[in-house]
UniProtKB/TrEMBL annotation:
The keyword NADP does not apply. The keyword Nucleotide-binding applies. Keywords: ATP-binding, Nucleotide-binding, Transport. Belongs to the ABC transporter superfamily. SMART domains: AAA (SM00382). GO terms for molecular function: ATP binding. Pfam families: ABC_tran (PF00005). This is ATP-binding cassette domain-containing protein. It comes from the Bacteria. InterPro entries: AAA+_ATPase, ABC_transporter-like_ATP-bd, ABC_transporter-like_CS, P-loop_NTPase. It comes from Hymenobacter citatus. Residues 6-240 form the ABC transporter domain.
Length: 321
């Protein structure tokens, strides 16, 4: 394994003799998204804030790109780590462009480079600069402010970004829209991200890897699929119980269902999905047009709604067997 982007060993934090983070260890490879998930008060934010030294641990070590963060000046460390929080924390007397430029300015990037980067980020985050660069935070909606917060965290192109409930304060529709942008933003895909949430659907949508915490301890760390189909204990099983079906539809892909699908005569004008599409995506496509079929790219198979559901059921039995 290459040097982990983040390597945490035996991390512990106590408040008045109560360990709110207990002996946590993990390694995160560069470019991965780790979601810290768990009930309120389980220690997610405390763990995240130890990564950028907003909170100092009582025990254990943290290495970022192979360097012990205790050897680094906290302010410098933080300039190298993007940070997005629920309250956004934009500076009210700075324009959108000025807010985005804060860290690049501290790092003494060239003015023309900063302008170019700001323009690029605002455009990609659906805030056309001609309209928004000169506005003040109070003139923006909550969702727009959150997009500016993300642009600000990415402005200096840090390889690691820490996010604490970044979509927590938004209504469900805005939240889904920003999550979609988040997934489609190429530059975020390349970054190492640690994201805190208590929203299970959000965790499954964004994570390469989930660490499910309870009372300061990792109950299980693994891919969404591992947590769902191979729960390490009862806590993990119970945590996903209420949303199990929705999660299964999201986690299983057409590739999983494929062996159980009957061959159908090809309908040339049918919509096509790749084998990596989730059963959920296929279901959405098919339920809009009952009786219709979809083609599965690079295979000789097509499927209708009934066939998909029958295949899903068999793929589920195979995954949990
Ligand atoms: N400064 C502090 N002094 C004492 N206790 C604290 C302090 N900060 C946090 N705690 C306690 O530590 C525990 C973990 O808090 P933390 O904020 O990390 O949880 P969380 O999982 O992020 O919760 P939430 O999802 O509600 O934000 C909580 O029980 C909290 O009350």
């Amino acid at each position: 394994m290459p040097t982990p982007a983040i390597h945490v060993r035996n991390l512990t934090k106590r408040y008045q003799d109560r360990a709110v983070v207990q002996d946590i260890s993990f390694a995160l490879a560069p470019g991965e998204t780790l979601v810290l998930l768990g009930p309120s008060g389980c220690g997610k934010t405390t763990l995240l804030k130890m990564l950028n030294r907003l909170i100092e641990p009582d025990g254990g070590t943290i290495e970022i790109n192979g360097h012990d963060i205790r050897q680094q000046n906290p302010a410098e460390l933080r300039r190298g780590l993007g940070y997005v929080i629920q309250q956004v924390g934009l500076l009210p007397h700075y324009t959108v462009a000025e807010n985005v430029a804060v860290v690049p300015k501290l790092l003494k990037h060239k003015p023309e480079q900063i302008t170019q980067r700001t323009t690029e980020l605002l455009t990609r985050l659906h805030l056309p600069p001609a309209q928004y660069a000169g506005q003040y935070p109070r003139q923006l909606s909550g969702g727009q402010q959150q997009r500016v917060g993300i642009a600000r965290a990415l402005a200096a192109d840090p390889p690691i970004v820490l996010m604490d409930e970044p979509f927590g304060a938004l209504d469900p529709i805005t939240r889904a829209a920003i999550r979609q942008d988040f997934r489609e933003l190429d530059e975020l895909r390349r970054k190492t991200i640690v994201l805190v949430t208590h929203d299970v659907q959000e965790a499954f949508e964004l994570a390469d890897c989930i660490a499910l915490l309870n009372q300061g301890q990792i109950q299980q760390m693994g891919t969404p699929r591992e947590l769902l189909f191979r729960p390490a204990n009862n806590f993990v099983r119970q945590f996903f119980a209420a949303e199990r079906l929705a999660l299964q539809l999201r986690v299983l892909q057409l590739a999983d269902v494929l062996p159980f699908l009957p061959m159908l005569p090809e309908t040339l004008d049918a919509p096509t999905l790749p084998t990596t599409a989730s059963v959920q995506e296929a279901l959405e496509l098919l339920s809009g047009a009952p009786g219709s079929q979809l083609r599965i790219a690079e295979t000789n198979k097509a499927v209708d709604l009934a066939g998909l559901m029958a295949g899903f059921e068999r793929a589920l039995s195979a995954a949990t067997a």
